[in-house]
Amino acid sequence: MIIVMQVGASPEEIQAVADAIREQGLEPLVLPGEDRVAIGIPAAVQPDQRDHLESVLANLTGINKITVTSRPYKLASLEYHRDRTVVELPNTKVGPETFTIFGGPCSIEGYDEFREAALVVKQAGAQVLRGGAFKPRTSPYSFQGLAEEGLRIMQSVGKELGLATITEVMSADKVGVVAEHVDILQIGARSMQNFPLLIEAGKSGKPVFLKRGPSASVDEFLLAAEYVLNQGNPNVILCERGVMPIDKSYTRNTLDLSVVPVLKDYSHLPVVVDPSHGTGVAKYVAPMAKAAVMVGADGLMIEMHPSPKHALSDGSQALTSDQFSALMGDLKKLTPLVGRTW
Ligand code: PEP
Ligand code: MN
User: Fold this and answer.
1) Domain extents for the chain?
2) Most buried among 126, 145, 162, 192, by the most CB within 10 A?
3) How far apart are CA 100 and CA 324, in angstroms?
4) Order of strands, sheet of 29-32, starting from the edge strand that comes earlier in the sequence
5) What class is the 87-338 domain?
6) 3-state class of 239 per DSSP?
7) What residues does 272 pair with on adjacent strands?
8) Residues lining ligand 2 (ion), CB within 5 A?
């Protein structure tokens, strides 16, 4: 918060503002300017301190302008919620100290194909099984997913193998049926600002895995999370999956790894990185996955397929079973270096 005094504000008026800040247990920083004084508060101001201070300052004279430098989201902010959120899942958790892998094919293509992929995911040590039943495809002529049948397949395979499950829900009216079949609701990048969907997912009480929109700012991303939290659902996992690239001829998106430490600075919510959609190219997935560990991600979402060239969606970014298992082995060696074991 910065309080800009009027030109010619008296020393008593400046003193009264500084005193009001001190009364909140904060230290004012008086910044003399050419024609006016500004008073800053360098320390983090808690929301209740700010509310109180704003009402005290409203009754003082000599103030020209008050700038609140704090962010527009509240429930998602670290300022408001000092403990980092740990999202509990049936067989694992997502948060600091541990590392969570969400692995599986882009789409659920059939029972046998999905079970084969899930066995690899399980054996490689991943904790959450992914796969789309409702697919957001750019073209209406592309494979759209197996819908409810896909949900039943996911539920049965997840149960058999003891893996937590995640799938995308694309519309508010499907939240109920998706929540009945899987453990985590994925809200895809294209739906990040589908507000009725966010609200319905919030109401479901299920953990929500929220993907960042390809052109969403950090504030927009965290405000989308705020919609879910605001429904009394504290279990939100943020996912960086790449933003609009400058040059689409090399990668599908640009994986914004710098947003991971930024999100950690401003929010208490866990952050997962998806290098599969983030690059769109299978051979770039492993290097970016390893980089994500080093910048502080709490987990990774990785697409794999037992036969990528036959995949019905996103085959070019899918790791083969061997590549997936090899990457898991490398990650197991890397994560203890940043204090995470799984
Ligand atoms: C997906 O996870 O398969 C997907 C469609 O992701 P995104 O929303 O990031 O494009
Ligand atoms: Mn995909």
Assistant:
1) 2-67, 87-338
2) 126
3) 14
4) 29-32, 37-40, 2-5, 63-67
5) alpha beta
6) strand
7) 239, 299
8) 106, 314
| Residue nearest ligand 1's atom 9 by CA | 189
Task: Report the nearest atom of ligand 1 relative to the CA of 106.
Answer: 3
| Nearest ligand for residue 167 CA | 1
Query: Do 72 and 223 form a contact (C-beta atoms < 8 A)?
Result: yes
Q: Which residues are bridge partners to 243 per DSSP?
A: 254
Domain spanning 2-67, CATH class? alpha beta
Per-residue pLDDT of the chain in tens (342 residues, 90 and over written 9): 889 999 999 999 999 999 999 999 999 989 888 889 999 887 767 767 888 898 999 999 999 998 876 778 989 999 888 899 999 999 999 999 999 999 999 999 999 999 999 999 999 999 999 999 999 999 999 999 999 999 999 999 999 999 999 999 999 999 999 999 999 999 999 999 999 999 999 999 999 999 999 999 999 999 999 999 999 999 999 999 999 999 999 999 999 999 999 999 999 999 999 999 999 999 999 999 999 999 999 999 999 999 999 999 999 999 999 999 999 999 999 999 999 999
Whether the model clears a pTM of 0.90, i.e. scores above it, the answer is no
Buried b (16+ CB within 10 A) or exposed e, 156-165: ebbeebebbb
Task: For residue 306, give both structure tokens.
Answer: 């037992």
> d(Cα 104, Cα 107) in Å, to the nearest integer?
8
Cβ contacts of 287 within 8 Å, gap of 6 or more: none
What does the angle CA 254 – CA 136 – CA 113 come to, to the nearest 5 degrees? 95
| CB of 207 shorter than 6 A to ligand 1 | no
Instruction: Report whether residue 136 contacts ligand 1, using a CB cutoff of 6 Å.
Output: yes
State in Å: Cα 139 to ligand 1 middle.
14
Q: What are phi and psi of 6, to 5 degrees?
A: -70, 155
What are the tokens at 255?
């994986």
Q: Which of 109, 168, 312 to mutate to test the pocket of ligand 1 (most atoms within 8 A of CB)?
A: 168
